[in-house]
Design goal:
- By secondary structure, the protein is α/β, with parallel strands linked by helices.
- The chain has ten helices and ten strands.
- Strands 3-4-5-6-7-8-9-10 form an eight-stranded parallel β-sheet. Strands 1-2 form a two-stranded antiparallel sheet.
- The two termini are about 35 Å apart.
- It comes from Leptospira brenneri.
- This is Aldo/keto reductase.
- Pfam families: Aldo_ket_red.
Length: about 280
């Protein structure tokens, strides 16, 4: 996937077009979040990812309204928090999120984490939410292959997307291959590994060749690998820099080199421990 631009999309198995580059707002405090989303939209981003637990859905909604863009131009994602999982509580949770976001639908609603004993009932509620038009598509987050296999066995709808931590230092190839086989988009959160690998000398060497930052190389690698990518930042300069990755192409050799760096380096929670 070398011919990319900020408007590039990936088609989901639920016939929804997902902008491949988005802005994540995890840990962004309300006022920071408002300004970050407004900046991102002004720079051409059209995909915003939030969650009930982030505590900033209202600010995301306000930023969209203040942007002057039509709601239909923006791909808006939010997530069901663990404490709200279960059939009836999920149906209530989406209404709370929609009210905070100031919209009558989201483009994708995700189960935030594969909570044991509740995830399948939550998914059935998501199917109802989709049928009612409150979400145009539904998916999951932090689901491993075992969780996906269970979900596909127990329910009738294949998730449109699986949002997981994914970067060159954490590549679950089994999970990615399973998602590809079943038409599930893989969305990479923490594509910069929370900055913990940005000083890697191998990365710096490649970045220098392209006259790009180390962060831009990581984002471009993930985009070319066919992932949806949602780098998080509240800094307007970095938000713009993170999107300045469409004027160069990583060579096949550099893609292979970066793809060889996996060390199962996880910076967030570990869903592999969930039954």
């Amino acid at each position: 996937m070398s011919n990319l631009e900020i408007t590039s999309i990936l088609k989901s198995n639920q016939s929804v077009s997902v902008p491949q580059l988005g802005l994540g707002v995890w840990k962004a405090r309300p006022k920071e979040c408002l300004e970050a989303v407004k900046s991102a939209l002004s720079f051409g981003y059209r995909h915003i990812d939030t969650a009930a637990i982030y505590g900033n859905e209202a600010e995301v909604g306000s930023a969209i309204q203040e942007s002057g863009l039509n709601r239909s131009e923006i791909f808006l994602v939010t997530k069901l928090w663990n404490a709200d999982q279960g059939y009836e509580s999920t149906l209530r949770a989406i209404d709370v999120s929609l009210k905070k976001l100031g919209t009558d639908y989201v483009d994708m609603y995700l189960i935030h984490f594969p909570v044991s004993g509740k995830r399948n009932e939550s998914w059935k509620a998501l199917e109802k939410i989709k049928s009612e038009g409150k979400a145009k598509s539904i998916g999951v987050s932090n689901f491993m292959v075992s969780h996906l296999k269970e979900l596909l066995k127990e329910t009738g709808t294949v998730p449109a997307m699986n949002q997981v931590e994914y970067h060159p230092f954490l590549q679950d190839t089994e999970l990615k291959e399973y998602c590809q086989k079943n038409g599930i988009l893989l969305e990479a959160y923490s594509p910069l590994a929370h900055g913990q690998k940005l000083e890697d000398s191998r990365l710096t060497k490649i970045a220098n060749r392209y006259h790009k930052s180390n962060a831009q190389i990581l984002i471009r690698w993930s985009l070319q690998a066919g992932n949806v990518v949602i780098p998080k930042s509240i800094n307007p300069t970095r938000i713009k820099e993170n999107a300045d990755v469409f004027d160069f192409v990583l060579s096949e050799n550099d893609m292979k080199e970066i793809s060889s760096w996996n060390e199962n380096f996880r910076t967030c929670w570990d869903p592999t421990t969930v039954e």
